Amino acid sequence: MSSVLEDNWKPISGPYRGYDQRGTPEPEWDLVKVGPGTKMGEYQRRFWQPVCFTSQLTDVPLLVRILGEELVMFRDRSGRIGALHKHCCHRGTSLEYGRIEECGIRCCYHGWLFDVDGTVLDTPGEPGASRLKNAVFQGAYPTHEYHGLVHVYMGPPELKPAFPEFDVFKVPGLKFYPSAVTHRNNWLQSFENNMDPFHGQFLHTRISPHFGDHYLVLPTVEWKVTEDGRGIYYTAVRRVDDERLWVRLFHCIFPNYVFVASLYDLQPEEPYFQRTFYARRVVPIDDENCTFFSWRLAMDEGEFSGGDVTRNGWNSIDIDGQVEQPTYELKQRVPGDWEAQTGQRPIALHKLERLGTTDAGIVRLRQALRKILAGQVPAALPPMGEGSLGSRDPENVYSSNNVLRVRKLADPQADGEQTRDVGRAVIGAVIEADAAPAGTRRQLIIDKLRRIEARYA
């Protein structure tokens, strides 16, 4: 006998009604499936995706899995990086057992030699007059190495975009520390977690003491999809004390870019536009696993200080609560993002969720992705053309911490309205500065924030 839930996905109200809530609806497949030919998978393939550390390319091949495909990564002896389909196009042997040579990789089974672009360079078992090697190719993808991470482009060759740049990457003296953290869950529930600022107060502060006390204050939050539809951000405003407001901006760019402002204690001197310190990609391994590839952005002192950059590496990061706890007991006693997101099932079931006020960002993010997959947001696809690194203007990132001197009003309702107005003024100032000449944007934003302070003095 089917339950009511199986019929219409609405559980019956009332206590002890588990019997009526046993059905399992289908996931929202368009958003979560990432293999070849799927809507989300083809969208993700239009972008350069990080797949491994540069340091992982040694004198033996590296087997990786991304977007449901298995690839063999290697650096040949001439220094070029290859990303080839796992199985040799001759007889299907895995190239993870191949031998790296001066120009490519040689299959262990019959010695076929493949260049980094998939060209067959040698078929030693064939007769000298054989033209077989001119008629077949090994599946291969373009690669790009950038600040310790190797990226691959897995989309249509004729649509390959330039490698992206962001304004924050241009800060003089900035250092990049790569990290990677694997999750046993679908990519979307990890990506959309970034539009849920309220989980920080509970999971990271009240349940598990990962973040500072200033996160205990529930923020006033507003979410918005960018005007071009290719990103989403939120503004979260909290009171630090009776004299100061903390305005935290969080910015994601589709399909899977995440920019995280500092999570450490606020600096003694109030920061104006303290920019993102983590640049992340939530990269699907397959439908039920993903990897957070990140750069920890750091400087010896100043805007990007804090934390311990030496903790960044493979399944290691200097943000507590991101990596799987080593024991089941610790998972129960001190859960973090890994436990919360993996605990949503390997693929979260949207039809079983009962969304509330705090989930408005999740709703907007999913709506935005549905519009993109429906072909309604042309700007969400990267511009075509080879290009070169830096051939386009760097894209501006909004994520930041901003502390403004705004005195608390005696009337709670009036203070709440003031808090919301300040948040809107700050994000407005940041977006208005998009047109600023390169190298002047941050100072222009700081000047605007000071004028906002003066307005509320």
Description of the molecule:
With 457 residues, this protein is of the alpha+beta class. The protein is built from 10 helices and 19 strands. The protein has helices at 4-8, 29-32, 39-44, 187-191, 199-207, 328-333, 337-342, 360-373, 412-432, 441-456, and strands at 48-53, 62-66, 69-75, 81-85, 99-101, 104-106, 113-114, 120-122, 143-146, 149-153, 175-183, 220-225, 231-241, 244-253, 257-260, 274-275, 278-286, 289-298, 400-405. The strands form 4 sheets. Strands 11, 12, 13, 14, 15, 16, 17, 18 and 19 form a 9-stranded antiparallel β-sheet that branches. Helix 9 (412-432) runs antiparallel to helix 10 (441-456).
Radius of gyration: 24 Å
Query: How much helical structure, as a percent, in the residues?
Result: 10-25%
Q: Estimate the strand proportion.
A: 15-25%
Mean pLDDT over the residues: 92
Sheet of most strands:
9 strands, antiparallel
Poorly predicted runs are 1-7
The H-and-E topology, N to C, reads as HHHEEEEEEEEEEEHHEEEEEEEHHHEHH
- Measure the end-to-end span: 67 Å
What is the 3D shape?
A: globular
Number of helices: 10
Overall SS class: alpha+beta
Number of distinct beta strands = 19
